[in-house]
Amino acid sequence: MREPAWRKTGSTPDYRFSxxxxxxxxxxxxxxxxxxxxxxAYRRWAQMEEAMRNNRELPFSGVMLVMTVGVAAAAFxxxxxxxxxx
Length: 86
Description:
Layout: H1 15-53, H2 62-85
């Protein structure tokens, strides 16, 4: 892989600036993910609240089923890989 042109200009910065830059970037990513998840959670909470107020069944969420199966499959695969590695 060839070196980008911007790395050939100027002088190498102090590594602390790069680490601070990375930390700031990760903080922005973490904040944006929290806002997205919070917005999705509010929508689901509102649906549940409305169903309970109107004496209806709670709505089914396919996302929970997919997440449960996904986490269980990942745990199974990890367990198999750990057993095979021994």
